């Protein structure tokens, strides 16, 4: 408004010899309307600014009140823990947390974790617990998981997948589709399986994969009982073969593919791995892609996914005394790994 007035004054001063023109009623009305519009715009801007100031605390309140279990789509590349950190950082950034305005308030913690490690070279469903939903993650381990795995015959690696160093090569040209289908029954049902050295299993509190990367000598864990509910060959185009596997907790697809290669008097490693289902969560129906990692999208997913969980594991509603003031008293968020089962990370 002031700038507009200054422009008018400057424009008038350029024509000192011109007599002022009387303002018509129409011009007066237009001027008044313009002034009213500008005043309204200023009021809206002020109100919008106020709303922007309160939106972050409101989002923080909503974020810290989220509880339940949902699923995200993990791409190839990051580890499950790295993906969880990425998810956490996106949510905290959206909510403007931590914020200086909360530095003197009582500390609150955002709980978030995942229920079942997925290899960095794999993609697919990663089940995530948030709030009190982290208590349900252990139950996710005992449920079934489903994978589509593509193996490569003729090559063995130290990691049992394509990310490792080739340790052995054997011929595979005489292996037929019938040969593969004929041995799958040996790997179905309740079987014994030796976990891979590159895994989340621990020795003296450290992961075997970490020790292997350091070049330390690591002994293989003893074979342990695992369950394969179904196993079928989907495609065979030598040297590649694709399996559809449904299994229980603690099962390693990399070990399965390696063992199949050995059973065929050759060797094999995992080329591609996708987890298509974990418990009731499927990749197509429930796994949120990264562009949906927002507070509102996750809240909606939690609501939709609550019906998928068994009644006995359903979360109770928040207590009435848990007020917004208590939730908003967040100073910072902690994220610390604690000991749990082999392939679960809980973060608090």
UniProtKB/TrEMBL annotation:
GO terms for cellular component: cytosol; nucleus. Residues 1-22 are annotated as: Disordered. Residues 104-253 form the Pseudouridine synthase II N-terminal domain. Its EC number is 5.4.99.25. Pfam families: TruB_N. Its main location: cytoplasm. Keywords: Acetylation, Cytoplasm, Isomerase, mRNA processing, Nucleus, tRNA processing. It is found in: Cytoplasm, Cytosol; Nucleus. SUPFAM superfamilies: Pseudouridine synthase. InterPro entries: PsdUridine_synth_cat_dom_sf (IPR020103), PsdUridine_synth_N (IPR002501), tRNA_psdUridine_synth_TruB (IPR014780). Signal peptide: none annotated. One of its GO terms (molecular function) is tRNA pseudouridine(55) synthase activity. Residues 1-13 have a biased composition (Low complexity). It is an enzyme of class 5 (isomerase). GO terms for biological process: mRNA processing; mRNA pseudouridine synthesis; tRNA modification. It comes from the Eukaryota. It catalyses: uridine(55) in tRNA = pseudouridine(55) in tRNA; a uridine in mRNA = a pseudouridine in mRNA; a uridine in tRNA = a pseudouridine in tRNA. Pseudouridine synthase that catalyzes pseudouridylation of mRNAs and tRNAs. Mediates pseudouridylation of mRNAs with the consensus sequence 5'-GUUCNANNC-3', harboring a stem-loop structure. Constitutes the major pseudouridine synthase acting on mRNAs. Also catalyzes pseudouridylation of some tRNAs, including synthesis of pseudouridine(55) from uracil-55, in the psi GC loop of a subset of tRNAs. Promotes the processing of pri-let-7 microRNAs (pri-miRNAs) independently of its RNA pseudouridylate synthase activity. HAMAP family: TruB_bact. Belongs to the pseudouridine synthase TruB family. This is Pseudouridylate synthase TRUB1. It comes from Lipotes vexillifer. The lineage of its organism: Eukaryota, Metazoa, Chordata, Craniata, Vertebrata.
């Amino acid at each position: 408004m002031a700038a507009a007035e200054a422009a008018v004054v400057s424009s008038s001063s350029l024509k000192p010899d011109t007599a002022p023109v009387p303002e018509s009623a129409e011009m007066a009305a237009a001027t008044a309307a313009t002034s009213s519009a500008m005043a309204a715009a200023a009021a809206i801007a002020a109100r919008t600014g106020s709303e922007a100031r309160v939106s972050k605390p409101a989002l923080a309140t909503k974020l810290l009140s989220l509880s339940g279990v949902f699923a995200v789509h993990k791409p190839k590349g990051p580890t499950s823990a790295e993906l969880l950190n990425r998810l956490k950082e996106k949510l905290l950034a959206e909510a403007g947390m931590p914020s200086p305005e909360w530095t003197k308030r009582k500390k609150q913690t955002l709980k978030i974790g995942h229920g079942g490690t997925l290899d960095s070279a794999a993609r697919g469903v990663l089940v995530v617990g948030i709030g009190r939903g982290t208590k349900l993650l252990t139950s996710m381990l005992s449920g079934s998981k489903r994978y589509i795995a593509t193996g490569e015959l003729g090559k063995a690696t130290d990691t049992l997948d394509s990310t490792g160093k080739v340790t052995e090569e054997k011929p595979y040209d005489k292996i037929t589709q019938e040969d593969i289908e004929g041995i799958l029954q040996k790997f179905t049902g309740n079987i014994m399986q030796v976990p891979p050295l590159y895994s989340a299993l621990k020795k003296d509190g450290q992961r075997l994969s970490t020790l292997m990367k350091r070049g330390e000598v690591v002994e293989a864990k003893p074979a342990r009982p695992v369950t394969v509910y179904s196993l079928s060959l989907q495609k065979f185009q030598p040297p590649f073969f694709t399996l559809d596997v449904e299994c229980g907790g603690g099962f390693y697809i990399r070990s399965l593919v390696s063992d199949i290669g050995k059973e065929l008097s050759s060797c094999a490693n995992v080329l591609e791995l996708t987890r298509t289902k974990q418990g009731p969560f499927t990749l197509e129906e429930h796994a949120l892609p990264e562009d949906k990692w927002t507070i509102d999208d996750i809240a909606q997913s939690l609501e939709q996914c609550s019906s998928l969980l068994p009644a006995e594991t359903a979360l109770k509603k928040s207590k009435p005394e848990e007020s917004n003031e208590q939730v908003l008293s967040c100073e910072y968020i902690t994220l610390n790994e604690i000991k749990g089962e082999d392939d679960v990370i809980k973060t608090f």
